[in-house]
């Protein structure tokens, strides 16, 4: 039997007597990738905050004893004038420069020794001057510091141009293989979910479906999540 790293049962969340999540039950297997999908307001980010223990909930959330969680937020609103460099930002969490270089390398920065001057440029760049994709990779590097074995991503490609989406998910997938990670991510892209996730949790304040994407996501579950106009959620190839 495959080992679970997370077990959630009968999870309920209310804000001001308004039920945001109702009776959510699912397990996440160790070293797997689980996607959470659903319309805006379905409770996806609330689910993340619940399993991270950041908000009150009813029900049980049980992490494996060795679970060490890294979290990558949806977006970090960075003021262009914020005088904080990549090196300083990562330095908040880790003082060992070698470890910082190691995580930067693993997210695709600092490739070869020939690029040393380029490394310094990236490390000395203000966060506000990075592109959306670069900032996302820096946030992933930040989450990787401290060697987590679980990574939570709240919509990994929000604010990244479409061309960058594949590379972010490719990177997440590569990290999973390289570092024995369990990945849980929120997404709107059904194609991405089908391609990268072993399991999908469909949410619309309650659990609509759960299981392998190719069997769990069907017309019925899409209708329960998005109503009749489901075709707009498909990302058509150009």
Description of the molecule:
- By secondary structure, this protein is an alpha/beta fold.
- The chain has a single domain, classed as Rossmann fold, CATH 3.40.50.
- The chain contains nine helices and nine strands.
- It has helices spanning 44-51, 86-91, 97-106, 116-123, 132-144, 162-179, 190-196, 213-216, 219-226, and strands at residues 4-15, 18-29, 33-37, 58-63, 69-72, 150-154, 182-186, 199-203, 207-211.
- A six-stranded mixed sheet has the order 5-6-7-3-8-9, with helices on both faces. It has a three-stranded antiparallel sheet with strand order 2-1-4, with helices on one face.
- A hairpin with a 2-residue loop joins strand 1 and strand 2 (18-29).
- It is globular and about 50 Å long.
- The termini are far apart.
Q: How many domains?
A: 1
Decide which structural class fits the backbone.
Answer: alpha/beta
Largest sheet: 6 strands, mixed
Can you write the helix and strand succession as a string?
Answer: EEEHEEHHHHEHEHEEHH
CATH class, anyone? Alpha Beta
Spatially, the strands of the biggest sheet line up as 5-6-7-3-8-9
Tell me roughly what share of residues is in helical segments. 25-40%
What's the rounded overall pLDDT mean? 86
Number of strands: 9
Q: Helix count?
A: 9
Task: Provide the CATH topology.
Answer: Rossmann fold
């Amino acid at each position: 039997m495959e080992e679970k790293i997370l077990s959630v049962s009968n999870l309920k969340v209310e804000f001001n007597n308004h039920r945001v999540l109702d009776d959510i039950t699912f397990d996440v297997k160790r070293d797997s990738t689980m996607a959470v999908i659903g319309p805006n307001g379905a409770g996806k980010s609330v689910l993340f905050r619940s399993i991270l223990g950041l908000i009150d909930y009813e029900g049980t959330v049980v992490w494996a004893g060795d679970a060490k969680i890294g979290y990558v937020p949806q977006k970090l609103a960075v003021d262009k004038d914020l005088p904080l460099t990549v090196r300083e930002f990562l330095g908040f969490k880790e003082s060992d420069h070698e470890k910082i270089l190691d995580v930067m390398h693993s997210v695709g920065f600092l490739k070869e020794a020939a690029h040393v001057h380029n490394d310094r440029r990236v490390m000395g760049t203000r966060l506000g001057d990075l592109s959306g994709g670069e900032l996302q990779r820096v946030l992933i590097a930040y989450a990787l510091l401290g060697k987590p074995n679980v990574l939570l991503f709240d919509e990994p490609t929000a604010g990244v141009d479409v061309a960058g989406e594949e590379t972010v998910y490719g990177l997440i997938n590569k990290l999973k293989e390289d570092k024995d990670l369990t990945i849980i991510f929120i997404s709107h892209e059904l194609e991405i979910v089908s391609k990268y996730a072993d399991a999908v949790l469909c949410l619309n304040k309650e659990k609509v479906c759960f299981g392998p994407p190719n069997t769990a996501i069907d017309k019925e579950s899409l209708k329960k999540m998005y109503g009749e106009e489901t075709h707009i959620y498909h990302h058509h190839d150009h």
